[in-house]
Amino acid sequence: ACSEARSEEPSAIGMQLEHQLNAPAGVPVILAEPPATDSLQLRLALELRSAPTPVLGGMLGAMALFLAANIALLLGFSIVMRIWREIRQRRRARFSALWEPVLHARMAGDVAPLPSMAASERLLFLSLWLHLLGYVRDQAADALAQAARELDIPDYALRLLESRSPWKRVLAMRAVAALHLEQAGDILLAKVMERRRRSSLAAARALLQIDPERGFVGLEYLLHHLEWSPAAMVGIVKAGGTKTVRRLAGLVRSAPPGRAKQLVRLIELLEDQAALPALRERLVSSSDEEEIAAILHCLGRHGQEGDRATALTYLTHASWLIRMQAAYAMGAFGSKRDVARLAPLLHDRQWWVRYRSAQSILRLAGAGAIGAMRENEPDPYARDLLERVLAEAR
């Protein structure tokens, strides 16, 4: 009974805590030293009591105002940009409505005087002019070039080559190339040497169209000093014509050991057989596995029946990469009698060699031969691969 009575009595710390919580705000209250066991509860209660609610509310309000201001700023900016885009589109539409009939008339042979054009409209004209020039040639292209000269577009394009805007520089490079402005040669070569990826490639292409000799100097510089994609170089090399392809073949012959892989890939994408003799010479002298494999792949796509003997010699090469590409090439210019040469590769230790060999056998002998080989094949791995190739051919 005594213990129950004691448990119902409020503890000293509880009385002090209640007194502190009920005290008016701002009135100091002196408490006795709390017992050690109740110190944590007391500290929590005092922190709750003394929390700066007005300050916290002010901070939250400031944050809300800051967020609201940023949202309003973003909305305002998006509205302004939308209005600006609409104004620009309407201006371009009005300009096109005025000048397209005029330029079409010029292409049709009408030599009537051209309308006046404000200086601020020259960039719009250049964009429209290059767009139309991409669809015409011969007399129509000459008529467009004459119209551009009457409007002093050549001088404007030369000045635009030094623009800070990459887009404007590229536009100017296309224009000077279309107009064959030889005075732009020094500027274009300097732009190539700047090694700015987009600008340098556009400058090399324009220079090849204006002056193929100097253009190839710029192209060779890019091939040696810039990481480039073969696909990106195809259009540039084609702009230089057959002479550029032949010069490219010369680079393959003189490239340091193992450094002709990208050139080979570029020649393959060009689909120009003029460079194939250089690849055959490089194949005989090269000892780099990746380079040999790249040449074999290119010969497999664009080679001739005379390359069959070359591919046969590489079917037993120590490098699986070379064996794989040799098997691929055999499928391009081999014959049914070469199936016996490819059949042992179905048991090669490298999956890709087995796969390319099965594809070439299918190409040379047909699905019936593959089915017969599958039925008589004791190796389960080779049998599964032949079945896979058949399934892909269906």
Written overview of the protein:
This protein has 394 residues and is mainly α. The chain is built from 22 helices and no strands. The protein is extended. Residues 1-10, 12-17 and 25-34 have low confidence and may be disordered.
What's this model, at a glance?
The chain contains 22 helices and no strands.
Which helices and strands, and how do they pair?
Elements: H1 2-8, H2 12-22, H3 39-49, H4 53-107, H5 122-133, H6 138-150, H7 153-160, H8 166-178, H9 185-193, H10 197-210, H11 212-225, H12 230-240, H13 242-254, H14 261-270, H15 276-285, H16 289-302, H17 308-313, H18 320-333, H19 339-342, H20 351-365, H21 367-376, H22 380-393
Helix pairs in contact: 2-3, 4-5, 5-8, 7-8, 8-10, 9-10, 9-11, 10-11, 10-12, 12-13, 12-14, 13-14, 13-15, 14-16, 15-16, 16-18, 18-20, 20-21, 20-22, 21-22
